[in-house]
Amino acid sequence: MANFDSGVADYVRAYAVVRVNFPIDYKGNADVNCYQCPFFRRSYSTCGLNGSVCQYPQRYVGDNCPLDIEEPEAKISNLEDEI
């Protein structure tokens, strides 16, 4: 077990990469907002990743969102052909 009586010499760094899937309907409309994110804390209206308050979480992704939003792939046309 570590002994920190004399202080801390250094830190072990750890990183995490998260992937969030936002839903897209069959017309190609994506619903990208904080409310759809599994890291959104609904009872406090805050982000679970960075702790910032989310304003209008059912409509937008806030400016402080740590996620890099990717453009959706063109899978919608394939899904419509299957239906």
The succession of helices and strands, N to C, reads EEH
Rg calculated over all Cα atoms: 19 Å
Quick one: how many beta strands? 2
| Sheet of most strands | 2 strands, antiparallel
Roughly how much helix do the residues carry, as a percent range?
under 10%
User: How would you classify the helix and strand content by structural class?
Assistant: little secondary structure
* Distance separating the two termini: 59 Å
Per DSSP, what share of the residues sits in E-state strands of 2 or more residues? under 5%
Summed up, the helix count is 1
Give the overall pLDDT as a whole number: 89
In spatial order, strands of the major sheet run: 1-2
Show unreliable segments. none
Task: Give me the secondary-structure topology.
Layout: E1 40-41, E2 46-47, H1 76-82
Defining traits:
little secondary structure; 8% helix; 2 strands; 83 residues; two-stranded antiparallel ribbon
What's the short story on this structure?
The chain has 83 residues and is largely without helices or strands.
Protein architecture, described:
By secondary structure, the protein is largely without helices or strands. The protein has one helix at about 75-80; strands at about 40, 45. It has a two-stranded antiparallel ribbon with strand order 1-2. A hairpin with a 4-residue loop joins strand 1 (about 40) and strand 2. It starts with about 40 loop residues before the first strand and ends with a helix. About 10% of the residues are buried.
